[in-house]
Amino acid sequence: MDGLVACVGAVVHDPDGRLLVVQRAHDPDRGAWSVPGGRVEAGEDDATAVVREVREETGLHVRAGAVAGRVLVPAARPRYAVVDLVCTLVDPAATPVAGDDAAAAAFVDRATLEGLRCTPGLLSALGGWGLLPRC
């Protein structure tokens, strides 16, 4: 990934089928909503990075699963190569609390998600992967 910053994102649904999202506290896309995630740190694999990022941004513990898809964010500087992983909650009753790079964190249903200002391409990527909120 020459010239690209390796990043991860977490696609997490609660038992009701709602999607975990965070409101970005920093640029790029400050104020927009997206799935939790961030840069892969030196020595981490994608699964380790996504578990850490979810914990830092929401306080939730997750298990990393299969790759949902990959997104290249070419308009950003630096450019980000994001691997989104499907994750499961360790404690399905836990409530997200914003932390680290998140201004807010919540589980949202489809109607709520569609009414939020989301990061570019989020809804189309999740829809293409069949991972929009199930309710």
TrEMBL record:
Q: What is its EC number?
A: 3.6.-.-
Q: Which residues form the Nudix hydrolase domain?
A: 3-131
Classification via Gene3D superfamilies? Nucleoside Triphosphate Pyrophosphohydrolase
What are the protein's UniProt keywords?
Hydrolase
Write down the top EC class of this protein: hydrolase
Q: Which GO terms describe its molecular function?
A: hydrolase activity
Mind telling me which CDD domains this protein's record contains?
NUDIX_Hydrolase (cd02883)
Give the superkingdom in one word: Bacteria
Family per similarity comment: Belongs to the Nudix hydrolase family.
Name of the protein: NUDIX hydrolase
